Automatic annotation (TrEMBL):
Protein name, per record: Peptide synthetase
Any Gene Ontology biological process: amino acid activation for nonribosomal peptide biosynthetic process
InterPro entries for this protein: AMP-dep_synth/lig_dom
Annotated ranges, domain AMP-dependent synthetase/ligase: 1-214
GO molecular function: phosphopantetheine binding
Length: 245
């Protein structure tokens, strides 16, 4: 369906080849996730080089919603963004944590209400429950916050919907439960399930895996390994490198 390049923070950027199966599974899951507000005006905030842009576009179109475009100046300026959300009656917003925090801080010194906004989805960075973010949600009753997790090689594999009351939020919200047709395992160095409370590496399997890295067979074999828990012929797991309990 598309290649998506990793950030290159650990070396040369690698092109992960995501199949149509992965994108279709994510969009189908997202339609069920946003069932409370299926036809929504969604802001196209993300760059096309960021895989969240596919959730913005195809999630909106598959539901019969509207995709609201934005220019780079507004994207970079939280004050302009806040006004833009109101003016264009945006209902669904995907933002990485840094941009979301910046928006919440900007709203602190102004009218924080965004009357039409119903859902915020954050991904790409670890979410933190800050005082500014809690205040922004208190000013917008009924606004939901959904935390998505997944590396480029799997797009998104888990999600966690935060409580309606911001005072109940944990400082570091969890990554949540796996999506439909996705499997997650916390394994030790021998690929055995780690006991509860014991750190292990997070492995992801199922429909959302990339086929591998474009023209990089050696590192593909290193990161995409046979799935010993799957009855599916050729089943694989992706080694995320993230440590979980």
């Amino acid at each position: 369906a598309y290649p998506i390049y990793t950030s290159g923070s650990t070396g040369k950027p690698k092109g992960a080849a995501l199949p149509h199966r992965a994108l279709a599974n994510i969009v189908r899951w997202q339609l069920g996730r946003q069932a409370a507000h299926p036809v929504a005006r969604t802001l196209q905030f993300s760059s096309l080089s960021f895989d969240v842009s596919f959730q913005e576009m195809f999630g909106a179109w598959a539901a019969g919603g509207t995709l609201v475009l934005i220019d780079d100046e507004t994207r970079r300026d939280a004050e302009l963004l806040l006004a833009y959300l109101r003016e264009h009656r945006v209902e669904r917003l995907f933002l990485p944590f840094a941009a979301l925090q910046n928006l919440a801080e900007t709203a602190e010194g102004a009218d924080a209400r965004v009357p039409d906004l119903k859902e915020i989805v954050t991904a790409g960075e670890a979410l933190r429950s800050t005082p500014q973010l809690r205040a922004f949600h208190r000013a917008n009753p009924g606004l939901s916050l959904d935390n998505h997790y997944g590396p480029s090689e799997t797009h998104i594999v888990s999600a966690y919907l935060l409580a309606e009351d911001p005072e109940e939020w944990e400082l570091l919200p969890p990554i949540g439960a796996p999506l439909e047709n996705v499997r997650l395992y916390v394994l030790d160095a021998r690929m055995n399930p780690a006991p509860l409370g014991v750190p292990g590496e997070l492995y992801a399997g199922g429909a959302n895996l990339a086929r591998g890295y474009l023209a990089r067979p050696a590192i593909t074999a290193e990161k995409f390994v046979p799935d010993p828990f799957s009855a599916e012929p050729g089943g694989r797991l992706y080694r995320t490198g993230d440590v979980n309990l």
